[in-house]
């Protein structure tokens, strides 16, 4: 059996007619830049996250960069985040000329709130908790620290559309929430796209200026900025997918629940937990496995696609060496990086395919 890690063709096949109609409407109207579909998408996404404002952008990376710019973060400032995130999180900090400060994570792969406060200095301006894998970070203590120390919170929710913590949507806790709509995300554009959410109308307006080359009006630029606009065509296509997002999310959650039960008795494979206060959306289903690389090669030989998110922590990547941490600085994240393996969990995964994945994992460990 062949079980691909992702299957975008299968996702789009039943939506083809809807997607083509949406694209045709944009082509006929001819409003390709900040057209009415962008405004409508922003309203729907804000409602989805239960926040007053959402601003569509060209990528999740620019969402993080502009969120930090809106907060006035720049040279001399420090921003705390985790070392096991995708590089875009830390790149965004560096690209505002602020200093990334990393702290280790917990077993849930998310930032350890107990390590945040010791890392705060007089130069610290913000915390970026990452809802990695679609599992919400532990927001209650993080927000308590931020309030106590007068810090901003920018949620990196790139992998976590529809995830919840204590019944609240991620992206609604911090000052700003940043989402990616990259083609591999659960809610995905047919290309790059992103969103920032906020409860602050002033920040939302500032984001709209910064995404549009600093233009307050057609003829007056009030800030130096780049082009970070969400394409009208992408907004139209994503709105088609929005109608299916809840169903897709529940399918991913069902696949994750199956894996969790079917692999729970394997000492060599640790499956992710989910506490009652969390609603995880499983952008990825990440196990921690003994002999990870051997297991991955074995599964590939059996036709099972897997991935590693992410094999090299930020501070050990070439760009991250300048941060000055070195090997051993974050033992939990480094240990996880050698063990983590993402199994297929997408909404199109059939039960017989998931059963085959489990059977091959059990066979590898001789069970």
Q: How many DSSP helices?
A: 13
Radius of gyration (Å): 21 Å
Helix content: 25-40%
CATH topology of the largest domain: Aspartate Aminotransferase, domain 2
What spatial form do the alpha-carbon principal axes imply?
globular
Features:
three-stranded antiparallel beta sheet, single chain, 367 residues, Aspartate Aminotransferase, domain 1, Aspartate Aminotransferase, domain 2, seven-stranded mixed beta sheet, 2 domains
General description of the model:
This protein is an alpha/beta fold. Helix content is 38%, strand content 15%. It has two domains: 8-242, Type I PLP-dependent aspartate aminotransferase-like (Major domain) (Aspartate Aminotransferase, domain 2), CATH 3.40.640; 245-364, Alpha-Beta Complex (Aspartate Aminotransferase, domain 1). It contains 13 helices and 15 strands. Strand 4 (124-127), helix 7 (139-149) and strand 5 (152-156) form a beta-alpha-beta unit. Helix 2 (16-29) packs antiparallel against helix 9, helix 3 (36-49) crosses helix 9 (232-242) and helix 4 (60-70) packs parallel to helix 5. The longest helix is centred in the last third of the chain and has 18 residues, at 245-262.
